[in-house]
Amino acid sequence: MWRKSVLRIADDMAPLSCAVVPAHPWIYGLGQTTDSGGYLSPANALTYLAKKLIASGGTGDMIVLMIAENTHDIFMQELNSLASVFPAPAFTQVSRMAKAAAELSAVKMQLPAKAANRLPAAVPLSVPTHRAAMNAQRIASAQLTAEGSTSPEGLQTQIVNFVKVRTDLLTSIGLGLSELKDARANVWAFTYSGDLNAAAIELMKNIPQATAVYTAAMMFTGENLASLEKMINEPGCATRP
User: Fold this and answer.
1) Are 201 and 61 in contact (CB under 8 A)?
2) How far apart are the first and last CA of the chain?
3) How far apart are CA 170 and CA 193, in angstroms?
């Protein structure tokens, strides 16, 4: 069944393998995309996911995480929170697309038409061959530096620097994990275990935020999604052990 939940990183996360299916306005043939943004109702998003379940069949665990709002600002706020806690490609992609659509709409209203003919703003150039060449140069430079520091004093300095870098890195990792555990995101969550055809039927019952026009959802299916379900928290209810 659907429930309003809070998504956060659990204390004992474990690796898992699963199939992932996104549903958002920019999937061809699913949502409605206009100059002002992308629109998709929860019912249409979930119908799309339910058809995937029925076509696949079988049994297993299934989880759907969904953001559905009536205003673009609240949708973006909730979507950005979700992308920070659970930065799956579909969520981060939708966040970028929705933000870009909103910015484009604002630019069209604010700038004169001739602005479209101007050169774009400068951005860092990043292509595979360029990056490979730069990395090769850095490696060559590091090798030369290492070859020139083989004296006992030089080696001692390198060891001290290594220990410092390692300590700083471990501290940074610890702080990063702490920040991740403190992050929260509000989502509508649906969980089911068993026959996936039955899951498709249950998925369409009591759809939350039925009148929303901004929707992004992601469905996970696999043999065991216990690690992912541990992230779903509902006040007054225990998470899956």
Assistant:
1) no
2) 18
3) 38
CA distance 14 to 134: 36
> How far apart (Å, rounded) are the C-alpha atoms in residues 132 and 18?
33
The phi, psi pair for 193, rounded to 5°, reads: -135, 125
**Angle value at C-alpha 52, between 193 and 230, nearest 5 degrees:** 35
- Kindly give, in sequence order, each residue whose CB lies less than 8 Å from that of residue 104, ignoring residues fewer than 6 positions away: 35
Taking only the tens of pLDDT, the chain with its 241 residues reads 899 999 887 777 777 888 889 999 888 888 887 766 678 999 999 999 999 999 988 899 999 999 999 998 899 899 888 888 887 777 777 778 777 766 666 555 555 555 555 566 665 655 566 566 666 677 666 666 665 555 666 667 667 676 666 666 655 555 445 555 567 889 999 999 999 999 999 999 999 999 999 999 999 999 999 888 888 987 655 444 4
Q: What is the CB neighbour count within 10 angstroms for residue 9? A: 16
Query: Two tokens at 142?
Result: 């590091």
The pair of structure tokens assigned to 165 is 């870098």
Q: For residue 172, how far is the Cα from the chain centroid?
A: 22
User: 107 - beta bridge partners?
Assistant: none
Token representation of residue 119: 């050169």
CA angle 237, 187, 74 (to 5 degrees): 140
Q: What is the CA radius of gyration of the chain?
A: 24
Contacts of 79 (CB under 8 A, 6+ apart): 67, 91, 94, 95, 98, 216
Q: List the structure tokens of 238.
A: 């225990």
